[in-house]
Every structure is written in C-alpha cells, then in structure tokens.
C-alpha cells in the first residue's frame, strides 16, 4: 500500500469517528467512535514514522503508538465506570440525560 492510500484510510477512519461522536446518543457507541479516532491517529503515527526511513524514528513512533494504546485502554476503563454509574443512578443509557455525576 502506498502512503497516500494509508493517509486516506486514516482520514476516513477519523471522519467516521467524528460522525459517530456527533450523531450517536449511546455512550457505548460514542466510546467506540472515540476509539476509532484514536486508531486513525495511531495509523498516521506508524505510517509517518515508517516512511522516515530511520530506525530511531520508527522505534519512537512505535513507542508512541504503544503509549496511545495504553491511554485508550485507560479511557475504556473510565468510560465503562461512568456508564455503570449512570445505569446505577437510573439515568438510563442516553448521553442527553447524563449531565452530572454528583455523589
């Protein structure tokens, strides 16, 4: 695959994620859309670091991707905790009704 095709793929992945965040009301669908945007950014980092041609840059790009994957895992854990708190409080699964999480 050429670099241009991978950039186009990352653009469409990110655009789909933005559309999912804007259109969807379900917290789970919104978190999936955010993960799609993070994966598009990871793809761009890997493509950019791999096309530089230097080993040091490529390894730094892969290290950045691993950090972003760990960040995404932490985001999922926090997001699931927030969804469970909303379900426990009886606010349902819509993001429109979820305004605060006061204890």
Class inferred from helices and paired strands: mainly alpha
Q: Into which percentage range does the β-strand content fall?
A: under 5%
Stretches with pLDDT under 50, minimum 5 residues: none
Corresponding CATH architecture: Orthogonal Bundle
> What is the global morphology?
elongated
Round the Cα radius of gyration to an integer and report it.
17 Å
Helix content: over 70%
Sheet having the most strands: none
| Assembly type | single chain
Order of helices and strands: HHH
Spatial separation of the terminal alpha carbons: 51 Å
Whole-number total of structural domains: 1
Number of strands: 0
Assign the CATH class. Mainly Alpha
In CATH, the topology is named: Helix Hairpins
Mean pLDDT: 82
Count of runs of 4 or more consecutive helical residues:
3
């Amino acid at each position: 695959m050429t670099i241009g095709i991978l950039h186009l793929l990352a653009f469409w992945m990110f655009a789909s994620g933005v559309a999912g965040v804007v259109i969807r009301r379900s917290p789970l669908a919104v978190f999936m859309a955010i993960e799609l945007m993070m994966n598009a950014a990871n793809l761009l980092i890997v493509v950019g670091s791999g096309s530089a041609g230097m080993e040091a840059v490529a390894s730094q790009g892969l290290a950045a991707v691993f950090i972003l994957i760990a960040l995404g895992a932490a985001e999922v854990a926090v997001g699931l905790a927030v969804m469970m708190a909303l379900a426990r409080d009886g606010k349902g699964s819509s993001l429109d009704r979820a305004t605060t999480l006061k204890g």
